[in-house]
Amino acid sequence: MKPFRYTSSDWFGKASAGLLLGFLLSLALGGLLARYGLGGVAPFSIQHQLTMWLVSPLLVIILSACFLFRSSAQAWLWLGGANVFAWVLLAL
Amino acid sequence: MRSDIIKLYKDVHTWTGIVSGLLLFIAFYAGAITMFEAPLQRWASPPAPFGELTPLEDSQQLIDRVLADYPDARRGYQIVFQPSAQFPARMSWQLPNPEAHDHDPPEFMHANLTADNKLIVAGSEASPVSQLVDDLHRQVGLMLPHEIAMPIMGSVALLYGVALVSGVIVLLPTLVQDLFAFRLGKNLKRLWLDFHNLLGVFSLPFHLVMALTSVIFAFHDQIYDAQEALVYRGENAFIQTARDASASPASGDKLSPALIAARLQEQQPEFEPHRMIVNDAAQRGPSLVVFGSNPRYGNRSPDGGVVGLDPYTGDIVATDYMPGMQSGWGATITSFFTLHFGSYGGNTVRWAYFFLGLGGAALFYTGNLLWLETRRKKQKKSTAAQAVEQRRSARILGPLTVGVSLGCIAGISVSIAAAKVLPALVADIGHWHTSIYYLVFVAFIGWAFLRGTALGAVDLLRAAALATGLIPLISLAALLAPGFGWNYSDGSGLVDVVASLGAIILALLGRRTAQRIRRAPHDSLWYIAPAAPLAPAEPGKLERT
């Protein structure tokens, strides 16, 4: 069997997953930090601002890393799964 | 690292870079200039009619007279400690403008008492050209409505962030070997690549900061909205904290501005107050705040930080944005702004950011050149006699790169130079500054396409040198011709010095480029075919013979 080799040919599927699901995941991770790390935040408090700022580095990391999924389908599946996990944790 | 991953990220780097590069060039070039927005605005603004600043001790009298005559000032006013082109008088207040958008700069009235107790009140004549440069910076050169320009800027910033990460990944395997290598040799692409890598690696922290903060500057409203709609609800609902009810006992007399300044000096000797704002009807926050800066700490905005004082005692009551007095959390958030604005460390950091900004512009310019060099068709032995017909993408991107970057430089220069001419000629100065910028910008791009990459670059470098030279020339004209323009004997002369140096550098680059196209190999982007029937006639001096 030929070993898997990465190409940039399916960039659009991966990048769109990275952008949409990455944005939602960054939001959820900020929310998880607020709830479980900071014990809740007051509107526009400094802690709230921090969870907002967090979106930028997380999104850039996810957008940069999403090309390492082997296919668009895998990108959507894994990032979708991570979102379900994070948002369920947040809704509990 | 696996070669296919490197290749993958090379593609990612190439395309994110090529899409965002030219817009980033404008953002960085204009951003470098905004580091000296205050001296630039001073240079560009006509002399204010106020004369000597009212002595601080007499400011209470000034306040009383203004409040009696100008109802608008009763809603809030400010007392200026350090005059600037923006606030040239001792007192100023904001004019109500119900039609203004959130991001429109507010309009001010200014008032000053002369030595013989005459009250002078006048609107602002501060030049809008520094605001134009700032807008070009914040909106990546697109003077579109804020709601349209900001998402574009944010998307460019995201692409830029991904371009930085992917660029580092591509460079990683050969980092040690390539980093200090600067191969001046026959291989020009190698030279450009070395230069690109050198700039990129050594200013990487600066660039990461710019990319990550710009994403937030563009999208903070949308993220807050999304958080409110999706995250902070149900179990995660916002917690409500009681507002600090430690309001001061409203008794006795308010302290005069001179006493406020003295009390602040006593408590925070290193804080340099610029202006104090009195607003008794403040919805949020204290009714008296002082804006100022402290170069020993990070300041939240380019002009510094802000401290809230008790108007009766002068005690510091609000330190959320006060440099050096913030909580750990607050200082952390402030550091994101500070690192973007370079608002720490005073003039040393200002200069460092100026050069880092210009270096950033050079990074994007060399990135585009690399794209072109990589894609250009190499000459085959069999067609040695003719020029190589380059791909369409190169024929478009080449002139576009030259036209956009030099057009931005020249457009800003001409628009700045016009500041000393426009007030005497036209009324709507801001509109004229924007039009002049775009006129030059578009003309440069058009000329680049007309003449092609190489000849266009030579012409436009010379034109940009001339455009930038206009700045000191206008100042010189103002010095020689009585009644025309103005000059100040303060730090704003820096503008003339820097512009002169810039003009000289552009002229030298023009000379080098002209020499290069005479020597360029036939398959180079910089090759100019000898006057062939198809090519337009070239100036004799540039022809190959």
Automatic annotation (TrEMBL), chain A:
User: Transmembrane residues, as ranges?
Assistant: 50-68, 75-91
The UniProt keywords, alphabetically, are:
Membrane, Transmembrane, Transmembrane helix
Entry protein name = Uncharacterized protein
Organism of this sequence = Parahaliea aestuarii
UniProtKB/TrEMBL annotation, chain B:
Q: Does the keyword Transmembrane apply?
A: yes
Q: Which UniProt keywords apply?
A: Membrane, Transmembrane, Transmembrane helix
- InterPro entries noted in UniProt: PepSY-ass_TM
Q: Which Pfam families match?
A: PepSY_TM
Q: Where are the transmembrane segments?
A: 12-36, 152-176, 197-219, 351-372, 396-416, 436-458, 465-485, 491-509
Q: What is this protein called?
A: PepSY domain-containing protein
Q: Whose protein is this, by species? A: Parahaliea aestuarii
